From TrEMBL:
Presence of the UniProt keyword Cell cycle in the record: no
Gene Ontology terms for molecular function: nucleotidyltransferase activity
Pfam families (alphabetical): NTP_transferase
CDD domains: NTP_transferase_like_1
Keyword vocabulary terms for this entry: Nucleotidyltransferase, Transferase
Alphabetical list of InterPro entries matching this protein: GlmU-like, MurU, NTP_transferase_dom, Nucleotide-diphossugar_trans
Highest taxon of source: Bacteria
Protein name as it appears in the record: Nucleotidyltransferase family protein
Sequence ranges assigned to domain Nucleotidyl transferase in this UniProt record: 2-124
Claim: rRNA-binding is one of the keywords in the record: no
Length: 219
């Protein structure tokens, strides 16, 4: 299985830290945030990683190179302007191939990597969901008996970690578009599974949360 890390965002919520450094390269726990992802993917047995880049792309590409320093292969998908999640995945599909792949938001931290076998049958996606953080109390989706829906009793937050089948994206017109509407459409057809992860997860979206993660890792 291949993996894709989303790293093309502008990092506006992280300013002023991202005025001169792209968010994936912000240091936490003694190494850039994105390096934590690469090391975890390697430990999970994943050797091919696609990374989409746009803002300060050259800095990220120079820092990580071809991936050999992490004993894996990095394939770069360079966007002239950020294409949002859906458009970014679509542009990267030639690098990802026809098999399901692991998708990770570059601005989260989590010590869990789902196995490819969790995406089964005709499902188009498998989502990792977590308890709602204080900054997102309403959650995103509902999880019932391993199936994900837009509405339901137990609403949880999407962790930014998922297994996706390329067919979820295939056929969309090129350009920038969001992933959420496609996921909701697949949910309406009962083609999205999910799981509740209760371990440590952080949406590293602000300088304050980055600092909190730093304290956690050093402890």
């Amino acid at each position: 299985m291949k993996a894709m890390i989303l790293a093309a965002g502008l990092g506006k919520r992280m300013r002023p830290l991202t005025d001169h450094c792209p968010k994936p390269l912000l240091p936490v726990g003694g190494k850039p945030l994105i390096v934590h992802h690469l090391e975890r993917l390697k430990r999970a047995g994943i050797d091919d990683v696609v990374i989409n880049v746009s803002y300060r792309a050259e800095q990220i590409m120079t820092a990580l190179g071809d991936g050999s320093a992490f004993k894996l292969r990095i394939h770069w998908s360079h966007e002239e302007a950020p294409l949002e999640t859906g458009g970014g995945i679509q542009k990267a599909l030639p690098l990802l191939g026809n098999a399901p792949f692991l998708l990770i938001n570059g601005d989260v931290w989590c010590d869990y990597t789902p196995q490819a076998s969790l995406l089964q049958g005709s499902d188009l996606a498998h989502l990792v969901l977590v308890d709602n953080p204080s900054h997102h109390p309403a959650g995103d989706f509902a999880l019932t008996d391993g199936r994900v829906a837009v509405e339901g009793r137990q609403r949880l937050t999407f962790a930014g970690i998922s297994l996706l089948h390329p067919n979820l994206i295939t056929g969309q017109p090129p350009g920038a578009f969001a992933l959420a509407p496609l996921l909701k459409q697949a949910m309406a057809g009962n083609r999205v599974s999910g799981e509740h992860f209760s371990g440590h997860w952080v949406d590293v979206g602000t300088p304050e949360r980055l600092e909190a993660l730093e304290h956690h890792l050093l402890a």
